[in-house]
Design goal:
The complex is a heterodimer. By secondary structure, chain A is of the alpha+beta class. In chain A, about 30% of the residues lie in helices and about 25% in strands. In chain B, strand 3 and strand 4 form a beta hairpin. Classes of the chains: A alpha+beta, B alpha+beta. The interface between A and B is large, with 57 and 58 residues.
């Protein structure tokens, strides 16, 4: 019997050989005969009336076939499209642009270079009347503020709140220590190394659309396209979405971008395939951003015990609410903000605001605003520990939800499935040598050197989600697996999710290997083609393992149940007398009398019992009973240069608990990457706007993605607390580190500067920001 | 737009084409020759996804005109190994030095030049050497490990060849 290498094996990745040879098939690698190229003219203004768009003949650029404008799209009712948050956003403007670099008009041409020439000519000829701009969300809420949206009453999009306000205020009033802090998590961008793009191919004879698309959620996209184009007669069975190899997603490839819609319309109009690949500058300046939460938090304690959290937020959504949240959650899962602590009461509120910036809101390797929530609670717990005169580690250890309390209902109503927070923090402290580093810090402080230690003990919330509360535009957030075992015992498995580098082809094969005893190399895993894969909601929010991974397990068990009947038939034994060992049924007490899964698969097509259907396959649409709650404790040690303000991460220990680990190598890789995307906004990345709405951070010379030089050598540890409700006890891990890391870094920097009187520092913690603080507190060195 | 006849030796094979003077080397490789393993990740020469070897040295092919490579030798990821996997490819796989695979071709070609220049690079040498190539997935830890492992393999292979000589 072949070795099956299921759970817990660091199986080398099945997808690697093609990537290593340059044989991956990414969006821009796909070409079709007669293909045209689309490029987009963009606005130099953050808010302006478009007074003139020239005709195509005026461009005088050879190879340019057409200009597509909002007025053209409006004839087909496609100038606007719905967002996932019941708002709408422009595909192309009919008369007004709302942010700098917004799409204004598109050019279709016979080559990539002709399309770029066409856009250059077009951008020189479009005329505008600039309008007043509002970029500060607080100012946008003031009476008389410039109104961003003509179709809305004001710039206030929504007010959302959760928790018991009265109980929270009472607990804060009764507290003997209360800390309050305002903090801003600025706009950032996922900046996956592959940008977004599509290739739309309309077949006028068949009335069929094939859409190759950089999407993390191909099935949902197909349904959205069908709904948006129903009035044009395009039905869902005539739409095939293919998501090819994806060069990183991180949430940035969940939304529908205007370029996709324009390219599709252009293909329908021209009858030819149309490709659109965005430039990096377009990607950073116009695609979905993340964060931009202005939070004010209050946290109270009585007798050394944390009691209550109040968290008020102004959320800058740009000109449209296009956050890719589950539909019932306008602020995502922000109400996980009570974190790892046993609070009496908590209340969170969010006010969404329109400004003259691009829309979006959550796309940065985070399951729906959890990073914002973790940042708030982990900063506040640190502050509260300090103000209480206590070490932040001791304070956390005393205030954690005790492990005996799980399943635990949080002050904000979530049922945490499992946890052992103390074990993770103690392990991280042991790994980094916490007490020795504290002693070193004290010595260094005597000498005037700046060193800090920061902790973040986060609770994640992933695996969206149970159908009773989680849907996107009404579609429940289950996910799926379909497994077919071929006669020779090899298999194909298809999923409703879509890997963007997470290694699904390997991980899913290992789950099936564990359940059925078929080695991973004998299992082909496919995702991303809506014509072949079962329906699912896609890969984001660390949901693939909790949902589709569970479906793989359940579908495998259905197959095993049928295999048992076939084995009984083959062995001429009673089903009740059979036992399973990995990959084989045998007769109890006669271990030699058995049939392997491969034998059984062959029989399923050649010698199945009379009265039983032939074949060996199963499908599962898994509706998770609860979310999963991965957690961990991170400790960061920083040194700060008093001459330059530079923060360097000397050590960073990350202890993660994601439940049962399927492929430890891949899990560690996910954590390495997540930590780097946690460090990035803490120290480097930001997209900001000046008062006129001009972007800063709109290309890779201004938007600083970490290189190998800035990235420390991450040190990983683990604890394993299986999820009690997931079939294999797994929880998901892709985003934990991005969620948990930033607060550890900020806490470390504040720790290094605490004795100077510094209580908070905003991110990104750039050298100039730190040097400013050092200078203000008389600690800067002038050399 | 003026046209030029160029001969560029790509992965050992001379390629003669008539091209526009402004055609970028990366588009020459991807679109004229169909070698799509070389990727494009930015428009400011920052990310390194398009890195190829130009006469043995790493070059960001999005910022080189194809005419400027006339007469030169170019190595792309497709030419890294004959048949099997090059020690660098093998090490990237074994060390899990890639996830989405988009930066990987450029990262491996930069690493090849780095190892040729410095057969036994320290961790700091590798980090500095690959700092012109962005990776968004791996956090670099396993890439650094892979480059050092590949260097060790190449050293030992060179040692064996010397022993046989």
């Amino acid at each position: 019997m072949p070795e099956c290498r299921g759970l817990g094996h660091s199986v080398l990745r099945k997808e690697d050989p093609r990537f290593l040879r340059g044989q991956g098939r990414y969006i821009d690698d796909i070409t079709l005969p007669g293909m045209l190229y689309l490029d987009i003219a963009r606005s130099p203004y953050a808010h302006a009336k478009i007074t003139r768009i020239p005709e195509v003949d005026e461009l005088g650029v050879p190879g340019v076939a057409a200009i597509i404008t909002g007025k053209v799209l409006d004839q087909y009712k496609l100038a606007w499209m719905p967002t996932l948050m019941s708002d709408q956003q422009m595909v192309l403007p009919i008369d007004t642009v709302k942010y700098q670099q917004q799409e204004v008009a598109a050019v279709v041409a016979t080559s990539r270079y002709a399309a770029a020439d066409g856009v250059a000519a077009l951008e020189g000829l479009i005329e505008y009347d600039p309008l007043p701009v509002v970029v500060d969300p607080h100012k946008a809420l003031e009476p008389g503020a410039t109104k961003v949206r003509d179709d809305k009453e004001s710039n206030h999009i929504f007010h959302w709140e959760h928790g018991d306000l009265e109980a929270t205020e009472k607990a804060l009033a009764d507290a003997d220590v209360v800390v309050e802090q305002a903090m801003h998590l600025p706009r950032i961008h996922v900046a996956s190394i592959e940008t977004c793009g599509c290739l739309a191919s309309w077949n006028p004879v068949e009335g069929h659309l094939t859409l190759y698309l950089t999407t993390q959620a191909p099935h949902a996209i197909r349904t959205v396209v069908a709904l948006v184009t129903a009035h044009l007669g395009l039905a869902e069975h005539k739409i095939r979405v293919i998501s090819p190899d994806i060069g990183g997603g991180f949430g940035g490839k969940v939304p529908v971008y205007p370029g996709y819609v324009i390219a599709t319309a252009a293909s329908v109009v021209t009858g030819k395939p149309v490709k659109w690949i965005e430039d990096r500058s377009e990607n950073l300046a116009a695609d979905s951003f993340a964060r931009d939460y202005h939070m004010t938090a209050k946290l109270g304690a009585k007798d050394g015990k944390v009691t209550a959290l109040k968290l008020d937020t102004v959320a800058d959504h740009g000109y449209s609410d296009a956050a890719a949240n589950p539909s019932k959650f306008p602020a995502g899962l922000f109400h996980v903000a009570s974190g790892s602590y046993d609070l009496e009461a908590a209340h969170v509120a969010v006010d969404g605001v329109y400004t003259n910036k691009p829309p979006g809101g959550i796309a940065y390797r985070c399951s729906f605003r959890v990073t914002e929530a973790v940042h708030a609670i982990e900063r506040m717990v640190d502050l509260l520990a300090r103000e209480s005169g206590e070490d932040p580690a001791d304070f956390r250890l005393r205030n954690f939800i005790p492990k005996e309390s799980f399943p635990y209902t949080s002050a904000l109503g979530w049922e945490y499935d499992s946890g052992d927070y103390e074990a993770a923090l103690v392990k991280a402290m042991d790994m980094i040598g916490y007490h020795e580093l504290r002693a070193e810090q004290a010595e260094k402080r005597e000498r005037g050197e700046l060193m800090g230690l920061g902790i973040s003990s986060f609770t994640e919330i992933v695996g969206a989600g149970p159908s009773k509360s989680f849907d996107i535009l009404g579609i429940k957030m289950f996910d799926s697996a379909e497994i077919r075992i071929h006669p020779t015992g090899k298999a194909i498995a298809r999923f409703g999710t879509k890997s963007q580098g997470q290694g699904h082809e390997t991980t899913y094969a290992q789950i099936i290997a564990e359940e059925l005893g078929i080695p991973p190399e004998d299992i082909a895993v496919e995702e991303g083609d809506t014509d072949t894969a079962p329906y699912g909601l896609g890969t984001y929010a660390s949901r693939s393992t909790p949902t589709a991974g569970a479906a793989a397990s359940i579908a495998s068990r259905k197959i095993r149940a049928k295999a048992k009947k076939i084995a009984a038939h083959l062995l001429e034994a009673d089903e009740a007398d059979l036992e399973w060992e990995q990959g084989r049924f045998f007769v109890k007490g006669s271990p030699d009398r058995g049939k392997t899964i491969q034998d059984i698969a062959f029989a399923a097509y050649t010698n199945h019992p009379q009265g039983m259907e032939a074949g060996l396959e199963a499908i599962s649409y898994y509706d998770p009973p609860n979310l999963t709650f991965p957690f961990g404790s991170y400790i960061c040690c920083v040194d700060i240069d008093r001459g330059t303000g530079e923060v360097s991460i000397r050590r960073f220990v990350a202890v993660d608990d994601c439940g049962v680990r399927i492929n430890p190598m891949i899990v560690d890789g996910q954590i390495h990457g997540g930590l780097t995307m946690g460090m990035a906004p803490a120290l480097m990345e930001e997209i900001s706007y000046d008062a006129d709405g001009n972007i800063h951070g709109g290309n890779f010379t201004e938007y600083l993605v970490p290189t190998a030089m800035e990235t420390p050598k991450w040190e990983l540890g683990e604890t394993v607390t299986p999820s009690p409700h997931h079939p294999i006890g797994a929880k998901g891990v892709g985003e934990s580190a991005t969620v948990g890391a930033p607060a550890a870094i900020v806490n470390a920097v504040v720790d290094a500067l605490w004795h100077l009187g510094v209580r908070h520092v905003e991110i990104p913690i750039t050298p100039q920001r730190v040097w400013g603080l050092l200078d203000k507190h008389g600690a800067a060195l002038y050399r | 737009m003026s046209a030029h006849r160029v001969t560029i030796t790509v992965n050992g094979e001379p390629m003669e084409r008539e091209i526009e003077s402004r055609l970028l080397l990366v588009h020459f490789l991807r679109e004229e020759l169909g070698l799509t393993g070389t990727h494009i990740g930015c428009d400011t020469t920052s990310c390194g996804a398009c890195t190829v070897l130009l006469d043995g040295r790493p070059a960001k092919s999005c910022t080189v005109f194809a005419v400027a490579a006339d007469g030169a030798e170019v190595t792309t990821v497709e030419g890294l190994a004959n048949g099997g996997l090059h020690p660098i490819q093998q090490a990237f796989m074994e060390c899990h030095g890639l996830q989405c695979g988009f930066c990987t071709p450029g990262m491996m070609l930069t690493s090849k030049a780095l190892i040729e220049e410095n057969p036994d690079p320290s961790e700091a040498d590798v980090r500095w050497g690959i700092s012109g190539n962005l990776c968004r997935c791996t956090g670099y830890v396993n890439i650094v490990k892979a480059v050092q492992q590949a260097a060790a393999t190449i050293r030992s292979e060179a040692g064996e060849e010397a022993d046989h000589a």
